[in-house]
Amino acid sequence: MKFSSNTVLITGGASGIGFALAQRFIQGGSQVIICGRREYKLKEARSKYPQLDFRVCDVAEPTERIALYKWVTETCPDLNILVNNAGIQQRIDLKETPDWKTLNQEVAINLEAPIHLSALFIPHLLKQKHPAIINVTSGLAFVPLANAPVYCATKAALHSFTLSLRHQLSASPIAVIEIIPPAVNTDLGGKGLHTFGASLDTFTDAIAEQLKTGSIEATYGFSVESSRATREQLEAIFKQMNQP
Ligand SMILES: NC(=O)c1ccc[n+]([C@@H]2O[C@H](COP(=O)([O-])OP(=O)(O)OC[C@H]3O[C@@H](n4cnc5c(N)ncnc54)[C@H](OP(=O)(O)O)[C@@H]3O)[C@@H](O)[C@H]2O)c1
C-alpha cells in the first residue's frame, strides 16, 4: 500500500493509534478525514494538521454510521481507504452483574461499527483506485485477558470477520488489511492505563513499513507471538497473562 495519493477515513483518528496513522498518511501526501465523539479532540488534531477534515460521530449508533458514510462519500468522492480503528476497552467483572448497556457499548463500537461501515463502504470502494479496508484488531484477539472479557471477544470476532471479508473480496480490487497491535502506550481504557505499552511512534512506524511492503497482517511485539502461536502456546500465554 502507498501512503501517498489516498483519501482515507480513520474512525477514532483524533488520538492514539488512529492519529498516529493519520499523521503517516498526511506526511505521505494523502488526504485524511477523522471522526470521533469528542469535538475538542478532533479540533486539537486539526490544529496540528490544518488539512485534516473531521466529523463528530459516535460509531456506536447505526444512524450516525450511515450519516458518516453519506457525508464522507459526498464531500470526498475519491475516498479509497476506510480504517476501522475506533475502539474502547473496559475492565469488567462479570460477577458484579454489569448492566447490558455498558456491555453492549463495547460490542457496538468495537465490532458492530466495523461490520456496518465495511458493508456501507464496499460499493463505493469498488469504484475507487487502490481501495482498502483496514481493521484494527488486537493481539488479545488470539488470547484473551480475562478482566477485559467483552473487549477480547469483540477483537476475536473482528479478526474472524476480517478473514471472511478478505475471502469474499479476494476477486475484487479492495485489499483487506488487519493491524494487530500489542499493548501500545495510548489512552485506551482511560488516561494512564496503557503506559506500559510499546511507544506509539515506534509501533506505528513498524506498522507503516509493513503496510508499505504489502503485508495484509501488520503485527508488532506480542501480537507477532500471539497471532502465530499454536494452541499449546496460546494456553501457556493465557495462564501467564491471567495469573490470579
Ligand atoms: N493501545 C493499545 O494497547 C491497543 C492494543 C490493541 C488494539 N488497540 C486498538 O487500537 C484502536 C485505537 O485505540 P488506541 O489505543 O489508539 O486508544 P485511544 O487513544 O483511546 O483511541 C481510541 C479512539 O477511538 C475513538 N472512539 C471511541 N469510541 C468511539 C465512538 N463510539 N465513536 C467514534 N469514535 C470513538 C476515541 O475518540 P472519542 O473518545 O472522542 O470518541 C479515540 O480517538 C482500538 O480499536 C483499540 O482497541 C489498541
Any idea of the CATH topology?
Answer: Rossmann fold
Average pLDDT reading: 97
| Oligomer designation | single chain
Q: Between the first and last Cα atoms, what is the distance in angstroms?
A: 43 Å
Fourth-tier CATH superfamily name: NAD(P)-binding Rossmann-like Domain
How large is the radius of gyration?
17 Å
Heterogens: NADP nicotinamide-adenine-dinucleotide phosphate
Percent of residues in β-strands: 5-15%
What's the count of strands?
7
| Helical coverage, percent range | 40-55%
Q: Name the shape in a single word.
A: globular
Q: In CATH terms, what is the architecture? A: 3-Layer(aba) Sandwich
Largest sheet: 7 strands, parallel
CATH class, named: Alpha Beta
Query: Reading side by side through the largest sheet, how are the strands ordered?
Result: 3-2-1-4-5-6-7
Q: Explain this structure to me?
A:
With 244 residues, the chain is α/β, with parallel strands linked by helices. The chain has one domain: 3-Layer(aba) Sandwich (Rossmann fold). 46% of the residues lie in helices and 14% in strands. The chain has 8 helices and 7 strands, in the order βαβαβαβαβαβαβαα. The chain has a 7-stranded parallel β-sheet with strand order 3-2-1-4-5-6-7, sandwiched between helices. Strand 2, helix 2 and strand 3 form a beta-alpha-beta unit. The longest helix has 26 residues. The chain starts with 6 loop residues before the first strand and ends with a helix. The model has no long low-confidence stretch (mean pLDDT 97). NADP nicotinamide-adenine-dinucleotide phosphate binds next to helix 1 and strand 2.
